[in-house]
Amino acid sequence: MHIEVKHVSKTFGTHKAVSDVSFGIERGKLIGLLGPSGGGKSTLLRILAGLESPDSGDVYINGKRVNDVPPQQRGIGFVFQNYALFKHMNVYDNIAFGLTIRKADKKEITARVEELLDLTGLRGFERRYPHQLSGGQRQRVAFARALAPRPELLLLDEPFAAIDAKVRKELRTWLKQLIATIGITSVFVTHDQDEAVEVADEMLIVQQGRLEQQGPPLAVYTAPQTAFVASFIGHSSVIEKPQLLRGFEHRAELNGGRAIIRPEFVEVGREREIAYPSAAAKGTIRHVFFRGAHLELDVQVGDNRVSAYRSLDQEPLKPGEEVYVLIHRLYHITDQSAVMLENPLKVDPLPVHI
Amino acid sequence: MAGAITTHLSDKASIRPKHTNESPVVRVVLTVVALLFLGLIVVLPLASVFVEAFKRGADVYVASITDPDAVSALKLTLLTALIAVPLNTIFGVAAAWAISKFRFRGKNLLITLIDLPFAVSPVIAGLIFILMFGAQGWFGPWLDDHNIQIMFALPGIVLATTFVTFPFVARELLPLMQAQGIQEEEAAASLGAKGWQIFWRVTLPNIKWGLLYGIILCNARAMGEFGAVSVVSGHIRGETNTLPLHVEILYNEYQFSASFAVASLLVLLAVLTLVVKTFVEWKTAQREPDGERSGEQHAH
Questions:
Q1: Is the pTM for the entire model greater than 0.90?
Q2: Nearest to A43 by CA among A55, A30, A60
Q3: Which residues fall in a coiled-coil region (chain A) (predicted)?
Q4: What's residue B160's pLDDT?
Q5: Domain check: are A70 and A174 in the same one?
Q6: Would you put residue A320 in left (φ > 0), alpha (ψ -120 to 50) or beta?
Q7: How do A76-79 and A153-157 pair as beta strands?
């Protein structure tokens, strides 16, 4: 393990920012720390950097306990949310800062800065000051500056938060490729799950200071382990009376429990469009939302409301229309866990045996 | 002096669409009223200083300001400023740095204490030192035994001046440093910079114009202080008289021309300060051409 965090807690006044968090990060991995705002992600990142010290618990880098090692000596690069570029220095001096502070050789500094200017596509901007750059350029300067002293661990706090949507997408791809090229262990904080899913090799889901789940994006997406992860990841509707849903009436554990259903678990359509009409219930379309690439349907089924997607190519459905609703599966959630349940009625009514 | 006014008039701000602007008549009336008032209250009295100073000819003027007592007062004034201003600069930077960059107990108390000299009348400030270091004061007998002269001597004048001018630098820097936050310092730390390196390479360059502005205000007040210094100086001519005190003495002796001549020296010092101040403001505005960070500056 490159980085190990063991039972770390941190309290600000009465606010428990991080409580008893433990995890490990393998060398070279790109980790996404994902969770709602104020959930303790940034604090955790700052503890890794040494900018905050934990109240209890230990942090290990390369097997060495670094609790008492100041940020200056941890061999980290930190990219701040608002970049924190040195306003009075131009791009060149910003990138060179970490090297000049170490009194590195002049030639060496020039070579390293030139290399990073090329790597980040900032050549030609070296004499510009931060206020003369666009958001995306500033982000790349911050990135180059953090990489200049060749850190072993790169920490990024909401690196794309201050950039507009289109540039953000480009930067995400760029960053992922760049980190893969350099092969540096990286941890980035985000509250945007699309970003985490797209960029990270592995995700850490953090909520209210606790680590909810760690794993590759696909695993977290398909097998959420806790109720929070099930509701936070993906676009979910919470179902208060799951025992009323067709196919789930006889699941005793659902009585009094709650469930989470993602739109992709739900099939909505006219009778002939549904693969297993016998497993579907009747419902009514409440609203239809245009979501750009597809339509989102808000459907009332008995006492429950679910969301579903519909392709733009399919025949449009109108609000008020009666439709068939097939729930393929759902997550049954309790305080502790999330368990996936399949719809048992979903068997082919006319099986063909070859 | 407590509420120093700073303006950053940019062309952008003065060009406004018609619907948010007043009619030409109103604008002209307002401008004329403002100018008349300014002329009456500021320009006329200042001009009268020079008129009075030269009333009895340039010879008298030159004689007045080259008079040994006047020269000694000028020297004392400059010396006092030379000691008090650096002291308050160091203190101001340290206090603003501590308050804006660290979390600690008693922070609010420190902020309140910094403002104290503005709240206390300068005469009271002078009396405080008499009570402490005067012959009948707390430390008076001890000082007397050891032959240390604080009251009615340079140390007393410097102490009183330092006390009165002590909030200027800190007050100027605090809002600026608080607005800037600690992110750049944290970035520097993560890049390997240590305490002093962070201060010299990151913090100081960010606050330098604000700091210079605070020093200028502090200096202006240090050279012009009358009340507190008057109490502790003892008015010993040629020894413990600063320029403002010397002006008063000359005036009380009916040497009006000499008095105004010396006063004109103070006015010239003030004008010089204003010129430097304007230059600093111009320089600050120039550094932020897109006005991105205006508003953080001098938030009085």
A1: no
A2: A55
A3: none
A4: 94
A5: yes
A6: left
A7: parallel
A63-93: per-residue pLDDT in tens? 999 999 999 999 999 999 889 999 999 999 9
Final residue in a domain of this structure, among A200, A224, A248: A224
Predicted confidence (pLDDT) at residue A292 exceeds the cutoff of 90? no
Which helix (H) or strand (E) covers residue B169, if one does? helix B167-180
Q: Which residues of chain A neighbour B288 with C-beta distances below 8 Å?
A: 131
One-letter amino acid for residue B283 of the chain: K
Q: Are residues A207 and A246 in the same domain?
A: no
pLDDT surpasses 50 at B294: no
A219-248 mean pLDDT: 86
On the question of pLDDT at A187 being above 90, the answer is yes
Residues of the domain holding A155: 3-224
Q: What is the DSSP letter of A347?
A: S
- Please report, for the domain that includes residue A274, its CATH number: 2.40.50.140
Judge whether A174 lies within some domain.
yes
My answer on whether A248 and A206 are in the same domain is: no
Q: Please state the domain count of chain A.
A: 2
ipTM of this complex? 0.81
Q: What is the pLDDT of residues B138-194, one digit of tens each?
A: 888 888 888 888 888 899 999 999 999 999 999 999 999 998 888 999 999 999 999
Count CA atoms closer than 13 A to B41's CA, side-chain side.
6
Tell me the CB-side half-sphere exposure of residue A169, using CA atoms within 13 A.
2
B186 has a chain A CB within 8 A of its CB = yes
CA separation, residue B287 to residues A138, A144, B197 (Å) = 18, 25, 23
Q: Which of A72, A84, A145 sits opposite B183 (nearest CB)?
A: A84
Query: Does A101 touch chain B if contact means CB atoms closer than 8 Å?
Result: yes
In a domain, A353, yes or no: no
Are residues A242 and A178 part of one domain? no
Same domain, A203 and A241: no
Percent of chain A with pLDDT over 90: 52
A149 interfaces chain B, CB cutoff of 8 Å: yes
